[in-house]
Amino acid sequence: MSHREREIFGYISHSTVNIGDDIQSIAAKQFLPADAVPVDREFISEFASPSPVKVAVNGWFMHQRGAYWDLPVPPPEKSWPPAPAVDPFFLSLHLTSTFHPTVFSQAGIEYLKAHAPIGARDFYTLDELRRRDIPAYFSGCLTMTLRRPPLTRNDVIYLVDLDEQSIADITQRVRSPIAVVTHGKSILPHLAPAHRLQYAEYLLGLYRRAKCVVTTRLHAALPCLALGTPVLMLSSETPGWMNPRFHGLVEHVRHTSKEELKTGAVDYDFDAPPPNPTSYLPIRANLERIMTTWVAGRDVHALTRPAGRVAPEQHDRSAPPSDHRTARATFVSSLIEPGDVGVEIGVHMGVFAYHVLLRRSPLRLYLVDPWQYGLQRDVETDPTPAHQAARDAEYRNVCELFAPYSNVEILRLKSEDAASRFADGSLDYVYIDGEHSYEGVTRDLTHYFPKIKAGGLLIGDDYGWSGVGPAVQEFLALHRDSLRLLADPYSEEASGQFALRRIL
Known about the structure:
The protein has helices at residues 3-6, 20-29, 100-103, 106-114, 123-131, 164-171, 193-209, 218-227, 258-263, 281-295, 325-335, 351-357, 385-402, 415-418, 438-448, 468-478; strands at residues 8-13, 37-40, 53-61, 86-95, 118-120, 136-138, 157-160, 178-181, 212-215, 231-236, 254-257, 341-345, 364-368, 408-411, 427-432, 452-460, 483-485, 498-502. It is of the alpha/beta class. Helix 11 crosses helix 12 (351-357) and helix 15 (438-448) packs parallel to helix 16.
Protein backbone atom coordinates (compact mmCIF):
# COMPACT_ATOMS: atom_id res chain seq x y z
CA MET A 1 0.00 0.00 0.00
CA SER A 2 1.41 3.39 -1.01
CA HIS A 3 1.78 6.42 1.22
CA ARG A 4 -1.01 8.17 -0.73
CA GLU A 5 -3.38 5.23 -0.16
CA ARG A 6 -2.81 5.39 3.60
CA GLU A 7 -3.70 9.08 3.91
CA ILE A 8 -6.86 10.02 5.79
CA PHE A 9 -8.85 13.12 4.88
CA GLY A 10 -11.25 15.10 7.01
CA TYR A 11 -13.73 17.95 6.75
CA ILE A 12 -15.08 20.43 9.28
CA SER A 13 -18.39 19.34 10.80
CA HIS A 14 -20.67 21.37 13.03
CA SER A 15 -22.85 21.31 16.14
CA THR A 16 -24.55 24.67 15.58
CA VAL A 17 -28.12 25.79 15.02
CA ASN A 18 -27.20 27.03 11.52
CA ILE A 19 -27.45 24.54 8.65
CA GLY A 20 -25.47 26.95 6.47
CA ASP A 21 -22.38 25.64 8.26
CA ASP A 22 -23.12 22.17 6.92
CA ILE A 23 -23.63 23.50 3.38
CA GLN A 24 -20.01 24.63 3.63
CA SER A 25 -19.10 21.12 4.79
CA ILE A 26 -20.77 19.65 1.70
CA ALA A 27 -18.82 22.05 -0.51
CA ALA A 28 -15.54 20.78 0.94
CA LYS A 29 -16.61 17.14 1.14
CA GLN A 30 -17.40 16.93 -2.59
CA PHE A 31 -13.64 17.05 -3.31
CA LEU A 32 -12.62 14.48 -0.67
CA PRO A 33 -12.54 10.69 -0.64
CA ALA A 34 -15.82 9.04 0.38
CA ASP A 35 -14.36 7.92 3.71
CA ALA A 36 -13.37 11.45 4.83
CA VAL A 37 -13.97 11.86 8.55
CA PRO A 38 -15.84 14.71 10.32
CA VAL A 39 -13.87 17.04 12.60
CA ASP A 40 -16.15 19.11 14.83
CA ARG A 41 -15.19 22.79 14.53
CA GLU A 42 -15.74 23.73 18.17
CA PHE A 43 -13.83 20.66 19.37
CA ILE A 44 -11.01 20.75 16.83
CA SER A 45 -8.47 21.21 19.63
CA GLU A 46 -9.56 17.84 21.12
CA PHE A 47 -9.71 15.82 17.92
CA ALA A 48 -7.98 12.46 18.29
CA SER A 49 -6.80 10.01 15.66
CA PRO A 50 -4.10 7.32 15.64
CA SER A 51 -2.87 8.76 12.31
CA PRO A 52 -2.67 12.37 11.10
CA VAL A 53 -5.76 13.55 9.23
CA LYS A 54 -5.47 15.99 6.33
CA VAL A 55 -8.36 18.35 7.11
CA ALA A 56 -9.87 20.93 4.76
CA VAL A 57 -10.42 23.75 7.26
CA ASN A 58 -13.00 26.15 5.83
CA GLY A 59 -15.86 28.28 7.10
CA TRP A 60 -16.58 30.67 9.96
CA PHE A 61 -14.29 30.38 13.02
CA MET A 62 -15.42 30.08 15.71
CA HIS A 63 -17.61 29.84 18.82
CA GLN A 64 -15.81 29.57 22.16
CA ARG A 65 -16.75 29.00 25.78
CA GLY A 66 -18.43 32.09 27.17
CA ALA A 67 -20.18 32.96 23.91
CA TYR A 68 -23.89 32.21 23.41
CA TRP A 69 -24.12 28.57 22.57
CA ASP A 70 -26.84 25.95 22.36
CA LEU A 71 -24.94 22.70 22.54
CA PRO A 72 -25.68 19.53 24.48
CA VAL A 73 -21.98 19.69 25.43
CA PRO A 74 -20.38 23.17 25.79
CA PRO A 75 -17.19 23.92 23.83
CA PRO A 76 -13.94 23.15 25.61
CA GLU A 77 -12.00 25.75 27.58
CA LYS A 78 -9.20 25.66 24.98
CA SER A 79 -10.52 25.77 21.42
CA TRP A 80 -7.39 26.64 19.43
CA PRO A 81 -5.03 25.67 17.92
CA PRO A 82 -6.18 22.37 16.40
CA ALA A 83 -5.02 19.11 17.92
CA PRO A 84 -1.74 17.53 16.70
CA ALA A 85 -3.72 14.89 14.79
CA VAL A 86 -5.08 17.63 12.49
CA ASP A 87 -2.96 18.41 9.44
CA PRO A 88 -4.83 21.53 8.30
CA PHE A 89 -5.32 23.02 4.86
CA PHE A 90 -6.81 26.48 5.36
CA LEU A 91 -9.11 27.58 2.58
CA SER A 92 -12.23 29.80 2.47
CA LEU A 93 -11.60 30.82 6.07
CA HIS A 94 -13.44 33.61 7.90
CA LEU A 95 -12.12 34.73 11.29
CA THR A 96 -14.80 36.53 13.29
CA SER A 97 -13.73 39.44 15.51
CA THR A 98 -14.64 37.72 18.78
CA PHE A 99 -12.19 34.96 17.90
CA HIS A 100 -9.29 37.34 17.23
CA PRO A 101 -7.84 37.37 20.77
CA THR A 102 -7.41 33.61 20.51
CA VAL A 103 -6.48 33.04 16.89
CA PHE A 104 -4.16 36.07 16.82
CA SER A 105 -2.39 35.33 20.08
CA GLN A 106 1.34 34.77 19.66
CA ALA A 107 0.81 31.00 19.58
CA GLY A 108 -2.12 31.37 17.19
CA ILE A 109 -0.16 33.52 14.75
CA GLU A 110 2.77 31.10 14.81
CA TYR A 111 0.38 28.23 14.07
CA LEU A 112 -1.17 30.01 11.07
CA LYS A 113 2.25 30.97 9.72
CA ALA A 114 3.37 27.36 9.99
CA HIS A 115 0.44 26.32 7.79
CA ALA A 116 0.41 29.31 5.44
CA PRO A 117 -0.57 30.53 2.96
CA ILE A 118 -4.09 30.92 4.35
CA GLY A 119 -6.99 31.11 1.93
CA ALA A 120 -9.24 33.93 3.19
CA ARG A 121 -12.93 33.69 2.38
CA ASP A 122 -13.43 37.47 2.37
CA PHE A 123 -11.43 40.69 2.16
CA TYR A 124 -11.97 41.43 5.87
CA THR A 125 -10.22 38.21 6.91
CA LEU A 126 -7.52 38.72 4.28
CA ASP A 127 -6.71 42.17 5.66
CA GLU A 128 -6.64 40.93 9.26
CA LEU A 129 -4.22 38.13 8.35
CA ARG A 130 -1.91 40.38 6.37
CA ARG A 131 -1.88 43.01 9.11
CA ARG A 132 -0.19 40.38 11.24
CA ASP A 133 2.26 39.38 8.52
CA ILE A 134 0.57 36.01 7.95
CA PRO A 135 0.92 34.96 4.27
CA ALA A 136 -2.60 34.91 2.87
CA TYR A 137 -4.59 35.24 -0.33
CA PHE A 138 -8.25 35.77 -1.22
CA SER A 139 -9.81 32.41 -2.07
CA GLY A 140 -13.54 33.13 -2.00
CA CYS A 141 -15.99 30.61 -0.56
CA LEU A 142 -16.08 26.90 -1.36
CA THR A 143 -19.88 27.01 -1.68
CA MET A 144 -19.25 28.75 -5.01
CA THR A 145 -18.10 25.34 -6.32
CA LEU A 146 -21.25 23.31 -5.61
CA ARG A 147 -22.15 21.24 -8.63
CA ARG A 148 -25.36 21.71 -10.57
CA PRO A 149 -27.03 18.54 -11.89
CA PRO A 150 -29.48 19.00 -14.77
CA LEU A 151 -32.85 19.48 -13.07
CA THR A 152 -36.17 20.98 -14.11
CA ARG A 153 -37.05 24.15 -12.23
CA ASN A 154 -40.41 24.61 -10.55
CA ASP A 155 -42.38 27.83 -10.06
CA VAL A 156 -41.60 28.31 -6.35
CA ILE A 157 -39.86 31.37 -4.91
CA TYR A 158 -38.03 30.50 -1.69
CA LEU A 159 -37.66 33.20 0.96
CA VAL A 160 -34.80 32.16 3.25
CA ASP A 161 -34.58 33.78 6.69
CA LEU A 162 -36.39 37.00 5.78
CA ASP A 163 -38.16 39.15 8.36
CA GLU A 164 -41.95 39.48 8.24
CA GLN A 165 -41.86 42.92 6.62
CA SER A 166 -39.63 41.71 3.77
CA ILE A 167 -41.84 38.65 3.25
CA ALA A 168 -44.88 40.93 3.02
CA ASP A 169 -43.08 43.30 0.62
CA ILE A 170 -42.29 40.44 -1.74
CA THR A 171 -45.62 38.63 -1.41
CA GLN A 172 -47.58 41.61 -2.66
CA ARG A 173 -45.37 41.89 -5.74
CA VAL A 174 -45.40 38.32 -7.07
CA ARG A 175 -47.77 35.86 -8.73
CA SER A 176 -45.64 32.75 -8.18
CA PRO A 177 -46.09 30.55 -5.10
CA ILE A 178 -43.87 31.38 -2.13
CA ALA A 179 -42.23 29.08 0.42
CA VAL A 180 -40.59 30.40 3.59
CA VAL A 181 -37.44 28.58 4.75
CA THR A 182 -35.01 29.03 7.64
CA HIS A 183 -31.43 27.86 8.12
CA GLY A 184 -31.74 28.04 11.90
CA LYS A 185 -33.16 24.96 13.65
CA SER A 186 -32.92 24.33 17.39
CA ILE A 187 -32.82 20.57 16.80
CA LEU A 188 -29.63 20.74 14.74
CA PRO A 189 -27.10 20.62 17.63
CA HIS A 190 -28.64 17.30 18.68
CA LEU A 191 -28.20 15.62 15.29
CA ALA A 192 -25.28 13.47 14.19
CA PRO A 193 -23.06 14.93 11.43
CA ALA A 194 -24.50 12.54 8.82
CA HIS A 195 -28.08 13.60 9.62
CA ARG A 196 -27.15 17.28 9.46
CA LEU A 197 -25.61 16.74 6.04
CA GLN A 198 -28.79 14.98 4.87
CA TYR A 199 -30.87 18.00 5.87
CA ALA A 200 -28.42 20.35 4.18
CA GLU A 201 -28.64 18.29 0.98
CA TYR A 202 -32.44 18.50 1.20
CA LEU A 203 -32.31 22.30 1.31
CA LEU A 204 -29.85 22.41 -1.58
CA GLY A 205 -32.30 20.23 -3.53
CA LEU A 206 -34.99 22.87 -2.99
CA TYR A 207 -32.68 25.62 -4.16
CA ARG A 208 -31.59 23.67 -7.24
CA ARG A 209 -35.19 23.49 -8.49
CA ALA A 210 -36.41 26.92 -7.37
CA LYS A 211 -37.58 29.67 -9.68
CA CYS A 212 -35.55 32.02 -7.51
CA VAL A 213 -34.33 32.49 -3.94
CA VAL A 214 -34.38 35.65 -1.83
CA THR A 215 -32.26 35.48 1.30
CA THR A 216 -30.28 37.21 4.00
CA ARG A 217 -28.03 34.17 4.33
CA LEU A 218 -24.64 34.16 2.64
CA HIS A 219 -24.74 30.38 2.44
CA ALA A 220 -28.02 30.36 0.66
CA ALA A 221 -26.95 33.10 -1.77
CA LEU A 222 -23.54 31.69 -2.77
CA PRO A 223 -24.83 28.11 -3.26
CA CYS A 224 -27.58 29.47 -5.51
CA LEU A 225 -24.94 31.32 -7.48
CA ALA A 226 -23.09 28.04 -8.01
CA LEU A 227 -26.27 26.09 -8.76
CA GLY A 228 -27.45 28.59 -11.35
CA THR A 229 -30.58 29.47 -9.38
CA PRO A 230 -31.48 33.17 -9.68
CA VAL A 231 -30.89 34.75 -6.28
CA LEU A 232 -31.35 38.15 -4.66
CA MET A 233 -29.58 38.77 -1.37
CA LEU A 234 -30.80 41.28 1.20
CA SER A 235 -27.29 42.10 2.35
CA SER A 236 -28.06 44.90 4.81
CA GLU A 237 -30.80 46.78 6.62
CA THR A 238 -30.10 50.08 4.87
CA PRO A 239 -28.27 51.18 1.70
CA GLY A 240 -24.56 51.89 1.96
CA TRP A 241 -23.63 49.41 4.69
CA MET A 242 -22.51 45.81 4.47
CA ASN A 243 -21.40 43.20 6.96
CA PRO A 244 -17.58 43.00 6.63
CA ARG A 245 -17.70 39.22 6.27
CA PHE A 246 -19.55 39.72 2.96
CA HIS A 247 -16.79 41.83 1.35
CA GLY A 248 -15.41 40.16 -1.76
CA LEU A 249 -18.37 37.77 -2.00
CA VAL A 250 -21.68 39.61 -2.20
CA GLU A 251 -20.29 41.74 -5.04
CA HIS A 252 -20.82 38.68 -7.26
CA VAL A 253 -24.51 38.32 -6.30
CA ARG A 254 -27.46 40.56 -7.09
CA HIS A 255 -28.06 42.25 -3.76
CA THR A 256 -29.99 45.07 -2.17
CA SER A 257 -31.01 46.34 1.27
CA LYS A 258 -34.23 45.68 3.15
CA GLU A 259 -35.03 49.38 2.97
CA GLU A 260 -34.66 49.42 -0.83
CA LEU A 261 -36.92 46.37 -1.04
CA LYS A 262 -39.54 48.07 1.13
CA THR A 263 -39.53 51.32 -0.87
CA GLY A 264 -39.54 49.56 -4.23
CA ALA A 265 -36.16 50.98 -5.19
CA VAL A 266 -34.84 47.54 -6.15
CA ASP A 267 -35.34 46.61 -9.81
CA TYR A 268 -35.89 42.85 -9.65
CA ASP A 269 -38.64 40.86 -11.36
CA PHE A 270 -39.33 37.98 -8.99
CA ASP A 271 -41.70 36.26 -11.45
CA ALA A 272 -39.12 36.44 -14.27
CA PRO A 273 -35.85 36.67 -12.36
CA PRO A 274 -32.72 37.67 -14.28
CA PRO A 275 -29.80 35.22 -14.45
CA ASN A 276 -27.02 35.58 -11.91
CA PRO A 277 -23.82 37.48 -12.72
CA THR A 278 -20.95 35.32 -13.96
CA SER A 279 -18.13 37.30 -12.35
CA TYR A 280 -17.67 34.55 -9.74
CA LEU A 281 -16.54 31.99 -12.33
CA PRO A 282 -12.79 32.71 -12.03
CA ILE A 283 -13.05 32.32 -8.24
CA ARG A 284 -14.92 29.04 -8.63
CA ALA A 285 -12.39 27.71 -11.13
CA ASN A 286 -9.43 28.55 -8.92
CA LEU A 287 -11.04 26.95 -5.86
CA GLU A 288 -11.65 23.78 -7.85
CA ARG A 289 -8.02 23.72 -8.98
CA ILE A 290 -6.72 24.32 -5.46
CA MET A 291 -8.84 21.58 -3.87
CA THR A 292 -8.21 18.93 -6.52
CA THR A 293 -4.48 19.68 -6.50
CA TRP A 294 -4.28 19.45 -2.70
CA VAL A 295 -6.25 16.20 -2.53
CA ALA A 296 -3.99 14.73 -5.21
CA GLY A 297 -0.98 15.50 -3.01
CA ARG A 298 0.55 18.02 -5.41
CA ASP A 299 2.02 21.42 -4.57
CA VAL A 300 -0.69 24.08 -4.43
CA HIS A 301 1.68 27.03 -3.79
CA ALA A 302 1.55 28.30 -7.38
CA LEU A 303 -2.26 28.41 -7.22
CA THR A 304 -2.43 30.36 -3.95
CA ARG A 305 -0.45 33.47 -4.83
CA PRO A 306 -2.11 36.85 -5.17
CA ALA A 307 -3.20 37.86 -8.66
CA GLY A 308 0.01 39.90 -9.02
CA ARG A 309 1.85 36.57 -9.51
CA VAL A 310 4.75 37.50 -7.29
CA ALA A 311 5.30 35.61 -4.08
CA PRO A 312 4.36 37.68 -0.99
CA GLU A 313 7.81 37.35 0.49
CA GLN A 314 9.31 39.17 -2.51
CA HIS A 315 7.27 42.29 -1.84
CA ASP A 316 9.13 45.23 -0.37
CA ARG A 317 7.41 45.46 3.01
CA SER A 318 8.47 49.08 3.42
CA ALA A 319 6.16 50.00 0.53
CA PRO A 320 2.41 50.39 1.00
CA PRO A 321 0.45 47.28 0.02
CA SER A 322 -1.35 47.40 -3.32
CA ASP A 323 -4.28 45.26 -2.29
CA HIS A 324 -6.69 48.11 -1.54
CA ARG A 325 -9.18 47.03 -4.19
CA THR A 326 -11.64 49.88 -3.88
CA ALA A 327 -8.96 52.57 -4.16
CA ARG A 328 -7.32 50.68 -7.00
CA ALA A 329 -10.54 50.52 -8.99
CA THR A 330 -11.42 54.15 -8.28
CA PHE A 331 -8.01 55.39 -9.38
CA VAL A 332 -8.00 53.53 -12.68
CA SER A 333 -11.65 54.34 -13.39
CA SER A 334 -10.87 58.04 -12.95
CA LEU A 335 -8.23 57.88 -15.69
CA ILE A 336 -9.95 55.97 -18.48
CA GLU A 337 -12.97 57.14 -20.46
CA PRO A 338 -15.97 55.47 -22.12
CA GLY A 339 -15.13 54.76 -25.74
CA ASP A 340 -11.42 54.23 -25.08
CA VAL A 341 -9.39 51.53 -26.80
CA GLY A 342 -7.31 49.75 -24.17
CA VAL A 343 -5.10 46.76 -23.47
CA GLU A 344 -4.61 44.79 -20.28
CA ILE A 345 -1.35 42.85 -20.00
CA GLY A 346 -1.58 40.06 -17.44
CA VAL A 347 -5.23 38.98 -17.29
CA HIS A 348 -4.94 35.98 -14.97
CA MET A 349 -8.58 35.15 -14.11
CA GLY A 350 -10.10 38.28 -15.63
CA VAL A 351 -11.40 39.80 -12.40
CA PHE A 352 -9.89 43.30 -12.80
CA ALA A 353 -10.77 43.49 -16.48
CA TYR A 354 -14.35 42.47 -15.76
CA HIS A 355 -15.02 44.69 -12.74
CA VAL A 356 -13.07 47.82 -13.70
CA LEU A 357 -11.98 48.08 -17.33
CA LEU A 358 -15.13 46.64 -18.88
CA ARG A 359 -17.38 48.78 -16.67
CA ARG A 360 -15.94 51.90 -18.34
CA SER A 361 -17.57 50.85 -21.64
CA PRO A 362 -14.48 50.64 -23.86
CA LEU A 363 -14.87 50.80 -27.62
CA ARG A 364 -12.40 47.93 -27.69
CA LEU A 365 -10.62 46.07 -24.88
CA TYR A 366 -7.78 43.64 -25.64
CA LEU A 367 -6.81 41.11 -22.97
CA VAL A 368 -3.25 39.85 -23.41
CA ASP A 369 -1.87 36.89 -21.48
CA PRO A 370 -0.01 33.74 -22.60
CA TRP A 371 -1.47 31.68 -19.75
CA GLN A 372 1.84 29.79 -19.78
CA TYR A 373 3.38 28.48 -16.59
CA GLY A 374 7.12 29.02 -16.09
CA LEU A 375 7.65 32.39 -17.75
CA GLN A 376 8.27 34.06 -14.40
CA ARG A 377 11.20 31.85 -13.51
CA ASP A 378 11.89 33.24 -10.05
CA VAL A 379 8.59 32.01 -8.65
CA GLU A 380 7.25 29.51 -11.21
CA THR A 381 9.79 26.81 -10.52
CA ASP A 382 7.77 23.61 -10.87
CA PRO A 383 6.76 23.22 -14.54
CA THR A 384 4.56 20.16 -14.11
CA PRO A 385 1.65 19.32 -16.43
CA ALA A 386 -0.75 20.10 -13.57
CA HIS A 387 0.43 23.70 -13.34
CA GLN A 388 0.06 24.24 -17.08
CA ALA A 389 -3.35 22.58 -16.96
CA ALA A 390 -4.35 25.14 -14.35
CA ARG A 391 -3.33 27.98 -16.67
CA ASP A 392 -5.24 26.36 -19.52
CA ALA A 393 -8.32 26.23 -17.30
CA GLU A 394 -7.88 29.93 -16.43
CA TYR A 395 -7.85 30.76 -20.13
CA ARG A 396 -11.03 28.76 -20.79
CA ASN A 397 -12.81 30.46 -17.92
CA VAL A 398 -11.77 33.93 -19.10
CA CYS A 399 -13.10 33.09 -22.56
CA GLU A 400 -16.40 32.02 -21.00
CA LEU A 401 -16.56 35.11 -18.81
CA PHE A 402 -16.13 37.56 -21.68
CA ALA A 403 -17.99 35.60 -24.37
CA PRO A 404 -21.06 37.90 -24.22
CA TYR A 405 -18.99 41.04 -24.92
CA SER A 406 -18.29 41.72 -28.60
CA ASN A 407 -15.98 44.63 -27.71
CA VAL A 408 -13.51 42.34 -25.90
CA GLU A 409 -10.79 40.40 -27.73
CA ILE A 410 -8.63 37.85 -25.93
CA LEU A 411 -5.09 37.37 -27.21
CA ARG A 412 -3.33 34.30 -25.83
CA LEU A 413 0.13 35.63 -26.57
CA LYS A 414 3.21 36.90 -24.78
CA SER A 415 2.91 40.66 -24.41
CA GLU A 416 5.87 41.34 -26.72
CA ASP A 417 4.31 39.15 -29.42
CA ALA A 418 0.93 40.82 -29.07
CA ALA A 419 2.43 44.32 -29.41
CA SER A 420 2.83 43.92 -33.16
CA ARG A 421 -0.96 43.63 -33.44
CA PHE A 422 -1.38 47.31 -32.53
CA ALA A 423 -0.48 50.29 -34.71
CA ASP A 424 1.62 53.04 -33.20
CA GLY A 425 -0.52 55.74 -31.61
CA SER A 426 -3.67 53.57 -31.67
CA LEU A 427 -4.30 52.96 -27.96
CA ASP A 428 -5.79 55.19 -25.27
CA TYR A 429 -4.27 53.18 -22.42
CA VAL A 430 -2.33 50.04 -21.55
CA TYR A 431 -2.72 48.48 -18.10
CA ILE A 432 0.41 46.50 -17.18
CA ASP A 433 0.08 43.69 -14.62
CA GLY A 434 2.06 40.88 -16.22
CA GLU A 435 5.52 39.63 -15.36
CA HIS A 436 6.74 41.64 -12.35
CA SER A 437 10.48 41.31 -12.84
CA TYR A 438 12.54 44.40 -13.72
CA GLU A 439 13.21 42.95 -17.16
CA GLY A 440 9.56 42.04 -17.72
CA VAL A 441 8.21 45.46 -16.76
CA THR A 442 10.86 47.24 -18.83
CA ARG A 443 10.00 45.05 -21.81
CA ASP A 444 6.27 45.85 -21.55
CA LEU A 445 6.88 49.60 -21.18
CA THR A 446 9.24 49.60 -24.15
CA HIS A 447 6.95 47.67 -26.46
CA TYR A 448 3.75 49.54 -25.61
CA PHE A 449 4.97 53.13 -25.19
CA PRO A 450 4.88 53.71 -28.99
CA LYS A 451 1.40 52.20 -29.16
CA ILE A 452 -0.33 54.81 -26.99
CA LYS A 453 -1.49 58.07 -28.56
CA ALA A 454 -0.56 61.54 -27.31
CA GLY A 455 -2.54 62.03 -24.13
CA GLY A 456 -2.73 58.27 -23.65
CA LEU A 457 -1.71 56.34 -20.54
CA LEU A 458 0.66 53.63 -19.37
CA ILE A 459 -0.89 52.37 -16.12
CA GLY A 460 0.31 49.51 -13.95
CA ASP A 461 -0.08 47.75 -10.63
CA ASP A 462 2.25 46.82 -7.75
CA TYR A 463 4.67 49.75 -8.01
CA GLY A 464 6.15 48.87 -4.62
CA TRP A 465 7.14 45.34 -5.66
CA SER A 466 10.80 44.65 -6.23
CA GLY A 467 10.93 44.63 -10.03
CA VAL A 468 8.26 47.18 -10.85
CA GLY A 469 9.20 50.52 -9.25
CA PRO A 470 12.84 50.62 -10.47
CA ALA A 471 11.78 49.74 -14.02
CA VAL A 472 9.14 52.49 -14.07
CA GLN A 473 11.51 55.10 -12.63
CA GLU A 474 14.24 54.28 -15.14
CA PHE A 475 11.82 54.32 -18.06
CA LEU A 476 10.35 57.65 -16.89
CA ALA A 477 13.84 59.18 -16.68
CA LEU A 478 14.68 57.91 -20.15
CA HIS A 479 11.52 59.50 -21.60
CA ARG A 480 11.24 62.51 -19.32
CA ASP A 481 10.34 64.79 -22.24
CA SER A 482 7.45 62.56 -23.34
CA LEU A 483 5.94 61.17 -20.13
CA ARG A 484 4.54 62.57 -16.89
CA LEU A 485 3.87 60.68 -13.66
CA LEU A 486 0.28 61.60 -12.71
CA ALA A 487 0.26 60.68 -9.01
CA ASP A 488 2.56 59.44 -6.27
CA PRO A 489 2.17 55.65 -6.48
CA TYR A 490 2.43 55.48 -2.68
CA SER A 491 -0.41 57.96 -2.18
CA GLU A 492 -3.78 56.88 -0.84
CA GLU A 493 -5.28 57.88 -4.21
CA ALA A 494 -3.05 55.64 -6.32
CA SER A 495 -2.80 52.81 -3.78
CA GLY A 496 0.37 51.24 -5.19
CA GLN A 497 -0.31 51.88 -8.87
CA PHE A 498 1.56 54.03 -11.35
CA ALA A 499 0.13 56.10 -14.20
CA LEU A 500 2.24 57.75 -16.89
CA ARG A 501 0.63 60.13 -19.41
CA ARG A 502 2.20 60.59 -22.83
CA ILE A 503 2.47 64.29 -23.58
CA LEU A 504 4.36 64.05 -26.90
